[in-house]
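Look over this today:
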Amino acid sequence: MRKPSRKHRRRQHADDVPPGSGWWFWPGAVLLLIVLVGIGASLEGLSWQLLTMLRYTRGSCRVVAAEIVPMANTYELRIAHEVLLPTGVTGRNENTEQHTPSYNNRVDAEASLAHYAIGTVHPCWYDADNPARYSVLVRRGIDPTVQFIVLGVSMLIGWVGLSMVRRASGM
């Protein structure tokens, strides 16, 4: 009787391994979990940016008040602004970014507060029908390109993780 070749022995061993116990399974599963978080975060930011761009008009807003508010374990920035329109200015609003900027320590909050000095003008998005009702001040403007890149990279990493899991499971 002939001795099985080395290649045949490797293949035979791979067939004896129960699904999910291969070396590739756990790293692939961890990658898939990380990817789920990345996709969720990028979709949340992307949806907010796209909805803001579709519903509201891009404009400029002037900071009229800015302060640091201590919370339980963080420091939040409260920045009041008014929309600058050709017909004049609107009422005061306090919406800043997608989420209110918050920091773990006062030093970081003060560094960010310096960017929002009273009287400075920043990009914002406002409701054209009633600018006094809603406007949101944004630090750098809205550009969904970064969110699309994060989403694409997350999906690519997810594909690698799924391939690793499938390989380990014998699919």
About this structure: The longest helix spans residues 25-55. The beta strands are 57-70, 75-85, 88-93, 95-96, 102-103, 121-126, 135-137. Helices lie at 6-16, 25-55, 106-115, 145-169. The chain is about 45% helix and 25% strand.
